[in-house]
Structure formats: structure tokens, C-alpha cells
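Box S2. Input/output pair 1.
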Amino acid sequence: MKNTTESRLGWGMSDLSPFSHWEHPFSKAPDTATVNIPAQTPASILPPKNNTFSISRVVNFIDGVYFLVVGILLLRLLFQIQQVCRIIRRCRREKVNGIVYCYHKLDLPVFSFFHYLVMNKGQYSPAEVEQIIAHEQVHILQGHNLDLLLVEVMNALCWINPLFIGFKRTVKLNLEFIADKTVLDSGADPLSYQYSMLRCLQPSQLPLVNLFAASKIKTRIHMMNKKRSPIRNLYKYALALPLLAGSYFIVNPLKARAMPLSNHQEAELPDRQDLKAFEGYYQFELNKNSYIQIRVKGNQLILKQMWDDKEIVFNQQSALEFLDVSKGFPLKFSKNDQGSVIQLVAFNKDHWNKVKTYKEPKYIHLQPGELKSFEGCYQMERPDGTRNYIQIESIPDALILRQGWDGQEVLFSPTSATAFFGRHGTFPLEFTKDNNGNVTQMLAFHQDLWKKMQDPSTAIIKKQIKVGPAQLEALEGEYQMQDGKKISIKAESEGIVLKQLWDNEAIHLVPSSSTEFFSKERGMPLVFKTDKNGAATEFIVGERDHWTKIPM
């Protein structure tokens, strides 16, 4: 198998394929390091695989629709509140006994809103005004508007439940029952009160207020004329309580018995305390510098990538199998003959061996002059006779390695006078000096040898250039692959932003020519094709993925 350093550089510096960010969270496939550069480096845009039906995507779609409707309903609620406040501000106001009477000359029904009572006195007789005020005072003094506001908020959150519509109507009607009963109990004439309700009947689009003549007039009048049940009738309802209680305990015994698991389930799911056996550090077989940590949190396992501190939550599927449901990311553990966990396999192919200890890289300080001695261009000859190049530059307390084939940049910090480690903790470099202290070569991944070039002018290194705004804007638009996946391109000050429309991940790219771009963080070279007017028609990623521009 070919083990070229350029492929290892691509693997070590970009653990994830740019267009399948969560498909492979903490490693490339084991055979990745053996593939030649055009197909291997993180330059290929690979949309997430959709060969199988994903329940998580359906759930995410439903979640999106739910929260969208919730947002719309809450915005509508705020608009309605603003509408009521606008009406109140236009009124002539008088405050009496804590109630603000708002008088206007508009063709609006009488209503109350918290401590405001809004009405057009010219539309009603003095007797009707007295009954209206008595009714609305009940709403104001008992804070019924707070109930209505709470119901409207709950309706926005529970819109997906059709039963809540009936519940909202019932609450509003019940508040009117309370106000009607209070007015009648105070000595008001029922017949005159009911005629006043009918004469004041007027349509309204204000759901947040208490209306004197609203909420099913016919039902309210029926309730006012209904005879109250005598006290003795309550005993009939009391007799039903023992029957209801007996029915409940027949269906739900006082001492519930757990449903027994099948033999298969008992074998698959161990006691939760056994999850502690999975805790510890694991080392990647293909890169001894890559570690992950497993720890238990409640009934779940937390996987932490030690190179970037990213955490992934896993739920137990069987005795030794776990799954991150949202990303379809499986883990499978194995034990030795003594029953101790010794290894985990990710994605059914990446092997991580459990280790006793993990030591974080310890970085040291080197003087600027010492770091500058490592600067220059390095080359490595591939088995097919072609050469690849990298460039090393120094900054305070670190080196920047730039891959010549795709422009990707990686930061390294010193662990000794000649050894460096990638900031993500998975990529080692070791330099060799001659007797005069001059750097002659660099070893990557403990085995790939890069020789320092005496004449760096012959090295081919992809570098960023300046491109005008008009040229960048000519590349803007949406692009699509044959499988239907879409991305969008937008211009920014120093280059372009590529946004994956299936997961909204954004990737910033800079130009190496007017039609060639790359990501400093990921490599990922893009080559655009343009028409005679300079407008982009398509682009190619990694010499294999073709994206066609969608006509506007």
C-alpha cells in the first residue's frame, strides 16, 4: 500500500471531509491514507449519503415546521397587543379607583384590557353604560386578561394539538360566565342585562381583550336563565367518585409489576452501572497521536475528541453497541476473556484501543531566530516520479505549514528544539539538522520524509492573491450536483463563502487565481468555469465533483 505523506498531511490536518462534516466525526477511513492526492485530500466536496431513510431528518424537518409556526403565532400575538395599545393611546383617559376609562368616538365594541376599559359612551344609553362598566370591572379586578394572555401563549406553543383550540374557547367563555354571574349577583335585572348584551353585539378582531358582548351570547344567556342545581343533587356526583376510583385501581394496580424483558433483551442491555466499564482513553490504531475519551453521564456515553474538545453523545443500543442517533454515528466495544473493555470500533471500521493513560502535549517556547531556521520549502518525491511541496513559515511560538497542492494551512507548536505538534494534537513533525545547525529534512507522522529545498523558487505552492469585487460577484449563485444537492456561493471581501444548503455549513475560500479558490483550513480546491462574459457556469472540486450553476 502506498503511504505518501501528502495524503497523510491531508488526513492528519483535516479529520473531517468538508462536505460530510458529521459523517465521520473523529477520523478518516483506515484506507484513506493510501489514496493518491486528487481523490484523498480534503478537497473533495462529498454531500452526505442519503442511501437510507433517516428518521432524524424527518424529526428535524418536523421540528423546523413546529418552531416556524410557533414563531409566526407569537409574532401575531405581539402585533395584536400593539394594535390594542394603539387604540388606547388615541383615547381620552380618566382614572377612577384604579381603573383607566378610555373614551373614544370610533365604531368599536366595548372591551377591557388589564386595567383599561375602552368604550364609546355615545353608542349606549346610561343604563347600558352602567351594566357594561359593572361587567368589565369584574374582568379588570380579577385579572382575566392575564388568563387570556397565558392562553394565547399556550395556544402558540401547543398549536399542533387540535384539542387546544376548544380549550382556548372554553377558557374565554368561562371568564364571561364569571363576570355575568358576578353582575347578576350584585342585583342587576337579568332581562335588562341580557337585552343590553344583544344591543351591544358587535364583531371584533381583538382576541386579547374581554368583550362585553362576545363569547357566544346565546350560551351565556342560557347559563343565566338556567336553574341552579340544588345541594342534594351533589350527592349523586359524590356516589360516582368511588366507582371512578375503583376503575382506576383495577386498570392500574397499587403495586405495579414490571413487564419482564425477553431473554434477548436481558442479554442485550446490562445494568446502567456497567457503563462505567467503558470509561477511559482510547488511541487510534492508524495514528498513535490521536486520542479520545469516553465518560458516563446519566444513561449515556460522552465521547470527547482530545484534539479539539468536541463532544458527542451516544445512547445505548445493546450491551456493547451505542449510537449517536442525530448523526447516525455507531460505536461498538469489544472485551477480552476477562470481561474488560479493550477496544472500540467507530463506523464499523476505525479501531481505537483502550489505553491506561493519556498525556497532553507539552509545548515549549522557542526564540524567533530558532523558529526562523525551519522556514523554507520542502519536497517529497512520490513513487510515480511526481513531486509534492510544502512551505514552512514561522510566527511567534509556532510554525505554519502550507500544503502546496491545496493551500491548506496548519499551525504547529514546539514540543522540543526540533519537534512540533499540530495544534489539534494529531499531527507530529520532526526536523533534522546538520552539524552546522541547518535544517535538512522533516519527518511527518514518524515515517514520511520531506527534504528541504536549496532553491525554493522551483516549489509549486498555492497562495492567496487579490481578486476584484466584480470578478468575485460573477461567481455568486446557487450550484447543484446531479443528485440534487445544492450549495450557494457569495462574495466577501477576501474571497467567497460556500454554504452547504443541506446543513447550512459555511466554508470560506480565498483565490489563488481569478477562477481557482481554496480553503486555508481545509484545502478543498475549487476551479470555476466561466462563459465569454466572465460569469461562472460551473465549478469542479478535487478534479472529480462537478457542480452546475442554477440559472436565475
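Box S3. Input/output pair 2.
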Amino acid sequence: MSVVKMGKIRIIGIKEDQEEVIKELQKSEIIHIKSFEQGALDEYFSALTLNGEERHIAEEIAHIESALSFLEQFNENRALVENFFPARVETDEKGFEKTAHDFNYKNIIKNINDIKEKISKTEERIASLHSDIALLAPFKDLSWSPCQARETQTTNSVFLKGPKEEYASLADNLNGIGATFAEIISEDADFTYLLLAYWKENEDKISSAWKEKSFEIINLSLCDKLPSKAIVLDKKRIASLLEEKEALFTKIKRILNHKDKLMMVHDWYLFQLQREKAKEHLRESQRTFVLQGWVREDQKARAEETLKNKFPATYIEDITPDEGEVPPIAIKNPPIIRPFQGITKLFGLPHFGEVDPTALIAPFFFIFFGLCLTDAGYGIVLVAITLLAMKKIKLGAEGKQFFRLFLLGGIATIFWGIVTGGWFGIEVEKLPQLLKMSILINPLDSLMKFFILALALGLIQVFFGIGVEMYEQLRNRNFANAFADQLSFLIILSGTILWAASTQVVFLQRFYKTGLLIMLVGGIVMAVSSLFKKGKNPFLWIMLGLGAVVWKSKDFLSNVLSYSRLMALGLATSIIALVINILAGIALKQIPYLGIVLAVLIIVGGHLFNITINTLGAFVHTTRLHFVEFFSYFFQNGGEAFQPLSQESKYTISKVKTSAASTCLAARRVGRRTGGR
């Protein structure tokens, strides 16, 4: 449980080595590069002259991403899980570099874009033909081509479409005008389609009449065939275009074989882009360059050794941080604690000088998560699914830690399921005797005990949070504040709880006066400690302290009561599981023949749904308890993350990194066994 110590260094090298030095720093992932203060080293160095390479690389990445996105639409072998965790390509450094240099990705992208354009035009043509068919369908029974209904010197003919219920009224209006001929071509449920011929001298009156009744002209002047024949021809064209489209799809599916290589090239350019962005922080002279940044103290020697061995002309020096400058934050924990770092990072990293809360939340998160599910069967399923996912899905370091968190959550769920009798919602009375022997509390039968258990766990965590806050004050040598604000409050709370319990529980009645005495001691500690506070009248500090006790007591009570959600979620999981079993039993007994199939579907589908929704609930609510109720006492966050220049990939996973991590872990174990010799 620690925030890693950081040191600031400066690297000076010759310009001929600049590109290779940055590449080496990126591979080793050891330095968090920082910009120079304005005016710093201006006497010797100037800002690096950039040549627009970053823009070119960004454009190439955009082209490749567009091609990959289009290809993915045709990936029929994509697993369901890839919708949540996109597939990655595992590669070694040699294969990665060879693909990046030898693979003709531009030709592949050109082919993809050509096919994409052809597919788009084909789809537009098909849509246009479908529109033509829909337009001609009401006139398919015409025995002459619609283009023959044309305008002459004295007459005009138009095809109209309008509401069926308005046609009779339109016909009356047209008869009133006279000198017109109207013939219904067809009708459907909503519309009437007709041919209207009239003298042009009456055009204004006639057009006003049909517009008033919401009729509109349908332009069929380009149809020089019988509508029925035109429809048949259009359908044949659509069939031909669909064949062309399918042929294009086949070509795309063949190009899918190059998808992995495209992903490698994408990340190769991405690494280049990251190096180009890093160069923005460099300074240069005519023959040299300089950069500065933060390194972990435990990696500083490795950084110096790596650079000096490969680049003898490179000079590395320790430098003093600027006034008011704080280092970036990296947290370091043992492997068993490391999965919980994601929870800390989700809230925010500790600021400089603040304690890393990861190890503090780990045991509580483990206990609370399992208590929210309270079903050993569900825990076994969660562990199995997590292990399978970790084996099948190629993940980076953060992804693996995320799954390990749920693996630990599954183990906690198994424990709580064993002690509460939760096994896939099976009633306790129906469990084998062996499983009954381990039951310590049945939530459905002992609701109040389960409620008290949830609150007791909350009480412990809140007390612990106040204790951590006191430790922070002591560490910063604010002794008076630690005793007056935290220690006194803990003593007063302890006395209050003991006094309240003595009024309700018979065997605790003898501690009535003890509770009051402890409260008094807490008040004395607060009063005496306040005398040593700085900045205000001591008696004013005492008055403020008394008011703070009242205010903090209200917060304390509301915080502890929030832990009742642990009971609510645990009960919800158990009750839903029980209901699923009851429904499956009803289906099995009441529905002949198909009952067993339906019962199996209810059991499998219902329990999987219950596991999914309540696992999500357990994660969300357990996280919330830590963020709102626990962290509020001592953790402020706001630290800048330590982000060394590295190869941050999107589509690939390096086999070299995986093997290097395994080697490093093995070396540490050997070091521990040999006493570090």
C-alpha cells in the first residue's frame, strides 16, 4: 500500500540519437515527459521544429480505422463477447515490425474504399428501383404506357394520388367546373389513383380543386413501357444488382484475412504518433536535444543503465523540481491487492502526500461484494465465467486486473453463500445436511440479524475511515487536530453506542454509566486538545468542536444507515433466485410434455439474468459505499496520473510485454527467496 516515490531527471543527447532515444524510452515505459517552463534553458535551447509529421500520421491512422470499422461489419466469426471486449492481435516485436514495413496496407485500403463506394452506389440504385416499383405499382393494370398522357396545345393530362375519402367530393367539384375527364386507375385502403384530363383554359380552377382535397401529381412521364413490364424489368435489375452486391461482399470477406495485419499497422502508426506528441515537450540546439520528466525512484537506475549502454553520448542528471511542482502519482500494491486499484482510479488518484486507499478498500470491497450476492452457486458460476473469459479474451494489463476483481468477488460470494445457505435459491430445508452444517445465518429467516450484520460492517468501515483521517493528521504532525477532531469523536461515538445499546439490551444494562463516562472522556479530550489548536481563541475552538460533533454525528448516522443496501441486495438476490425455482417447478408440474423444456429455460435463463443484474448491482453499490461513505472521511483525490511515454496500443498485445512481466515476477520471487542477494 504505497504511492511510489518519484524523481525528476533531465536527459541531454545528440540530435543524431534523438529518434532512437525516444523509441527506447517508449519501449521501456519509464519516463513521464514534462514540458519546460516558459523561458527555461532559452539561452541554450529552443522549441523543437516540427515538420507536420504528426498530422500525416494522424491521417493515416484515420484511414486505417475507417477501413477496419467497415471490415468489422462483415466479420461473421465475431464472438458475442467481442461486442464488449474487442478482439486484439497478439504479436511479438519482430513480427510486428516486419508487418508494419512489408505489408502493403495502402493497396488494401484502396481496395476497401473502392468496394465501399461500389456497394454504396449499388444500394442507392437498388433503393431507386424499389422507389420506381412503388410508384408504378398502382398503375400496373394500365394497358398503355403512362408517357402517352402528355400535354397538348389545348389539353393536359395528369396522374393524381389522394385520400380515398376525398375523391367523391373532388369529383363533384370537377363536374361543377366541367370540361374534364377523370378515370380511377386503382385504389388501396387509403388512397385513390386516377387519370385526369382537362382543357388548359380551366387549369387554374382544376388544380386548385385537387390541391384543396390533398391530391398530388404523380410524374410518370419517363415511363415509356407498360407499367407491368417496367415493374418486371426493374425487379430483374434489382436481382442483378443484388448479385453484384453479394459479389462485392465476397471480396470484402476475402480482405478480412488481412484484418490482423491492418490492426498491426494501425498500432505501429499509433506508436509513432505518441512519439511525435512527446517531441512537443523537447528542446533542441543546433547539435543536441534535451528533455525532462519524472521517473519512479525504483526504476531510475534501470533508466540510466539502459540509456548509457545504448547511447553513450547521452547525459542523464537528477534535477530539483520547480517551486510548487508536484510529481505525478503511481500506486504500487501486492498482487492480491492490485485488482482493487481500478476502484481507486475510478474515483481518482491520491494527490501528492495523500495515502493510497487501495489496500484499505480491498478487504471491505471483497466482503461487501459477496454479501450483496450471498449465493455460493452464483459465486461458482461467476468464478467459472471469469476464468473462461480470462483464458479466451486477449486483454491488456488493466483488463486482466478488472477480471481478477470479479474473480475475487466470486470467491467472496461463495463464502457468503456457504454461511447463509445460498445455493441457486434452493430452500434451506431442501439442502443436503452437509451444506446445512455451515449455515451461520439465514437472511430469509433472520432478517433483523442480517440487517444488524450489514450495519455492523458499515459501522466498522466508517470507524476505520475516521481512524485513517486521524492517521493522516498525525502523519502531517497536526497532533492537536487529530486528537480534538478525530480521536475525541471516536471516543464520543463509542460511548454513545455503548450507552444506547445498554438501554435496549438487557445484559448490557450494567454498562449504562460506562457509556456516559466514555462520552465524557471524549469531551474532555476534545476540550483539552482544542487548547493547543492554532489560529483562533481556544474557547472558540471548543465551541466549534461541540457544534462539529453534532453535525458529524448526523453524517455518521446517515452513512452507517446507507450500508443497509448490503442487506437489501443480498435479500433481492436470494428472493429472485427462489422465485425462479418456484416458476420452474410450476412449469414442470402444470405443463405436460413441454413443461420440462420450459422449466430448464426458466432455470438457466432466470438464474443467468439474476447473476448478471445482481453482479452489476453488487459492483455499483459496493463502489458507491466506498466513494460516498468511506472516502468522504479522508480521501480527496486529484493527483495527476503517472503516464510514462509508452506503446499504448488499441488493437495489439505484445507477447514481449507478457513474457517480460512473467520474467520480472519470477525474478522478484527468486529475490525474496534468496534474501535479495
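Caption for Box S3: The domain at 150-219 is CATH 3.30.70.100 (Alpha-Beta Plaits). Confidence is low (pLDDT under 50) at residues 658-677.
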